[in-house]
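Homework help board

Subject: predicted structure for assignment chain

Our instructor gave us this sequence and asked us to write out the predicted structure in token form, then describe one feature. I got the tokens but I'm not sure how to describe them. Can anyone check?
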Amino acid sequence: MSMRSKSFGERIADVLIEDGLLLPAQLDEAMNLQKQQGGRLLKILTDKQFVSDQDMAFSMGRCLNTSPINLPKVRVPEEILNLIPRDMAKAHKLVPIARLHRRLFVAMADPTNVLAVDDLKRRVQLDIVPMIATERAVSDALSGVHAAHANMSEVLKQVSEEAGDVEVERQKREEIDLDRLATDSEDAPVIKIVNLVLAQAIKEKASDIHIEPFQRTLKLRYRIDGELVAAESPPKALQLAMTSRIKILAGLNIAERRLPQDGAARVRVARTEFDVRVATMPTQYGESAVIRLLPRDRGLLEIGKLGLLADDETLLRRVLMLPHGMIVITGPTGSGKTTTLATMLSILNESTRKILTIEDPVEYEIHGVNQSQVKPSIGLTFSNALRAFVRQDPDVIMVGEIRDAETANIAIHAALTGHLVLTTLHTETAAAAVWRERVSTSYCLRGARSCSRRPRRRSARTPA
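My token output:
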């Protein structure tokens, strides 16, 4: 009796199991669902979040001996995008990437689709080199997010032609009509520019958007992989209208322009929901705004997506199994400390553990975790919350950031009394965190009111 040959999806699933990315029981569940409901096996595996899109793409590449590509990180020139009609690209789920002599490199969700490759070859009269991209990345690219830069240029050109010097002069004289400001913020060009700024930031995988006013310009920058990257700036004439639009989205007071404000909103781009945190700050030439982008897709909080080396990932999993102690995540602004903490909490989030967090603000909402936000105006600080936490019988405590000696002291004592404490420190290196923690705690234990910038040399008897 001859055995049935395995389908392409089953062969990919075998590779995933071999690489330790998929459990046999998960494959059996997915195959049962396929028998009951139909559909592609590989799509069921990703929809059930048994396998991440990126792991699926790499495993397909291994099986087909085809190079995978991280499509969201690729900047595709406009002339390359225009080689393929959008309807054809959507029908075959592919995106052109680059052209080299007589070859066209194309990102495809299914590079085994030979009919699509042949159809494309006849259309462009070039040799097609398929590359594997995740289905979500291809869909996002085709949905228009990757064309945000081109659209931004068109909108900015249109707005610049319409805007005159009158608006700039009115801003200089501080003659602000609040009714007109609210109306201006609802104008179509302003709404479109703000939406495109958000879409471009999400496409570039930015963690923050910085909108900064200067005397004659309005600077727009994105924080990508920890570094600020300049983008095409909106006209200075739209400064007030854009700031007001952002404030309205975040539920802030557009009339208050003298004090800093903080707010939050929720946006949806390319079928993905994002929480945004907005912070405004008055400056010499108007209000500066910083928008932090936080994807609500809890599937992103996977340890495999943190970019750790294999040995480091193994070490992290091992220390998370410890019943008590302290884990400190260090790094500069925008380096991924909060995302790493949230991922660790999602791993620890089991019915057998009680988890309490104190954050400023709550950036990732995790079901099953008791999350609190600091409110200094009513006395709810990191240190006060920590004192209350130890009386709540927690197993895990997360402190968003160690900001002072008192918080460091309480956190260390909590770790020494049977709790697992997770926290962050703003330091450039992991080694610097040890020195900072020891100095802060030492001074706190001695009753010092403040920490000197250059602490005295301690003897071996000094508590740390």
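Reply (TA_rk): Your tokens look well-formed. For the description, you could write something like this. Confidence is low (pLDDT under 50) at residues 145-150, 163-179, 442-464. That's the kind of observation they're looking for.
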